[in-house]
Amino acid sequence: MKQSNKQTAISQRDKTIALYLRISRDDKDADESNSITNQKKLLTGIAKKMGFINILYFIDDGITGTKRDRKEFMRMIGELEKGYIGAVMVKDLSRLGRDHIRMDLYIEEFFPENDIRLIAVAEGLDSAEGEDEFTPFRNLMNEWYARDISKKRKLTNVVKGNAGEPLSPPPYGYTKDPDNPKRWIIDPESAAVVRRIFNMTLSGYGTEQIAAALDNDRILTPMYYWQSKGLRRGGLKTAERPSKWNSSTIVKILSLQEYCGDVVNFKTYAKSFKLKKRIANSEENMAIFRNVHEAIVDRADFEKVQAKRGTTRKRKTNNGEKNMFSGIVVCADCGHNLWYHFNQKNHDITYFNCSNYKGNRGNCDSTHYIRVDFLEQVVLGEIRRLVKYAKQHGDAFMQAAIGLSRQAEATERTRKQRELNSMLVRDKELDKLFNRMYEDNISGKIDDERFGRMSKQYTDEQKTLAERIKVYRAELEKQDCKTVTADIFLDILKKYARAKKLTEYMLNELIERVEVFQAEKVDGVWRQRLRIHYNGIGTVAIPDITQIPNCEISMQTRKGVTVTYSSTENADESIRISA
Fold first, then answer.
1. How many Å apart are CA 401 and CA 461, to the nearest integer?
2. N or C, which end of the chain is more exposed by having fewer CB within 10 Å?
3. Any idea what the CATH number is for the domain that residue 77 is in?
């Protein structure tokens, strides 16, 4: 009886076959006969004619043969190891894979060791009829084909990418133009969500709060939105529900320069055609084309968001409380950020002090203490004065602000470009010195020990130079893209003509940073100096005009200590405007 069951099991195994079907983008472009439907129809018919009764299908649709961990391929290998499948059939060996080392391992070791029959229809290969000495060569040619296709596609992408044609599908918020697939147009429904995300960020909301708000309003995530529109896009649908946004999705949307209307190509690269992992490219290796399609987000707002997310603007106290000035207020003496705190005895009192204060193991001599409520009153008061002056003397304000901001910007850019040029010259000199030293070492003029010591010195210097060159290029690029100029600032300023309260959105739109000086006692009165830097124009000194009263604020910040602020005492090193 046991012998009969064993024979039945063997018989069933011999009648069970795995059909492995695979197609990638390369195959779709090359040959329609490679479609999954045609492969399945062809192999099923042949398997039945050969007497196989139990036919199992393993399908990797849209997966390249150089990928080693193909989901269905690995599942098939797992089933083969269980021992109930007697044969594997593919249309041709390239369907099985295009990695010749790995395919040789399966064909010459795994299949024979597990007594599995391999059938490749196009090559007329059937391992039941004996070994085929040409199989290793076919596997090698299949890999060479993949390498050649990868090289051709890379060259094509280089040409297209450098011509300004988008190499990636349109991001959430855009769709392809039906009349020109190489052009993106705004998708109104999803673009509204993108604008909402940027506006909420500028208003002070964190990514988790934004994600929760979108989920609460049942806004579909990008993946499910594309699915609802019948668009097939890559990625995993791991969310618990279609409206479950992740903080990481919000972060990615906020970082996409494409929303300004730009095309950004070559953002990532792969080290080899066999390695599918994409690696982030450095900015100097990208190709950026500005204002190619209609913008969803104003460039000035995009830059504010990048600046906001690139600094510590949301430092929390120990109880998790945040403040809108975090990352904006800095120490006027050492340049470090001021840290946000609350009074241990009275949590209603919140304040900032220097993060680099020597009492906190830093090296700044003073605390630069300033109360938050005092800071809010001063900043709001100065904004009101600036709004009033710009409204009454717009031409004078514009002339002075534009002239000085352009002059300062041009001077700074010239300085940075001069330093960058100097570093580039030195970098080339190091290359020549290294080549000359190498030749001297070969000819025996320099011994190996000295060559090793000097080459390390030059290599270390070049490494430091490369890092500095990268930083300077990024700063110059950022300065070239800067759009918050005096005229734009004036338009933004007009929006707050009737502002009664300082909001985070208002603060981010108008102010770059606030420098806080240590309070000093003058004639028996403690006086606090602040220097406000406005976006795009720097600091502003408003002339003494009767229609625009000075901002005078006094507050008892600590027991027995009253601190006073006056505009007239805080007008140094500013844009001087004549009435």
1. 41
2. N
3. 3.40.50.1390
101 and 180 housed in the same domain: no
Residues 93 and 215 in one domain: no
Strands 87-90 and 174-177: unpaired
Residue 290 belongs to domain with CATH number = 3.90.1750
Q: Count of residues for the chain?
A: 579
Q: DSSP secondary-structure letter at 221?
A: P
Tell me, yes or no, whether 518 lies in a domain: no
80: amino acid identity, one letter: L
Sign of CA dihedral 292, 296, 301, 304: negative
Q: Could you give the angle at which helices 394-443 and 448-480 cross, rounded to 10 degrees?
A: 160
Q: How many CA atoms lie within 13 A of 4 on its CB side?
A: 1
Q: Are strands 125-126 and 117-120 parallel, antiparallel or unpaired?
A: antiparallel
Q: Considering only CA atoms, give the Rg of the chain.
A: 34
392 assigned to some structural domain: no
Among 486, 507, 534, the domain boundary falls at 486
3-class secondary-structure state, position 411: helix
Q: How far apart are the C-alpha atoms of 399 and 405, rounded to whole Å?
A: 10
Q: Are 15 and 140 members of one domain? A: yes
Cα 309 from chain centre: 12
What is the predicted pLDDT for the residue at 259? 92
Q: Which amino acid would we find at residue 60?
A: D
Distance CA 84, CA 138 (A): 29
Alpha helices (H) in 481-533, listed in sequence order:
486-494, 504-510
Residues 182 and 300 in one domain: yes
Query: Are both 192 and 301 inside the same structural domain?
Result: yes
Whether residues 124 and 48 fall in one domain: yes
130 and 201 in a single domain? The answer is no
Query: By CB neighbour count within 10 A (0-12 exposed, 13-18 middle, 19+ buried), where does 126 fall?
Result: middle
- Rounded to the nearest 5°, which phi and psi values hold at 89? -125, 135
**The last residue of a domain, from among 289, 309, 329:** 309
Domain count for the chain: 3
Domain that holds residue 33: 2-149
Contact 167, 161 (CB under 8 A): yes
Low-confidence ranges of the chain (pLDDT < 50): 1-4, 6, 9, 28-33, 273, 311-320, 483-484, 571-579
Strand 287-289 to 511-516 pairing? unpaired
Residues 91, 204: one domain?
no
For 349-385, what is each residue's pLDDT tens digit?
A: 888 988 888 766 677 888 888 888 889 888 888 888 8
Crossing angle for the helix pair 247-255 and 207-216, to the nearest 10 degrees: 110
- B/e letters for 352-362, b = 16+ CB within 10 Å, e = fewer, are bbbbbbeeeee
Rounded Cα distance, 99 and 144, in Å = 9
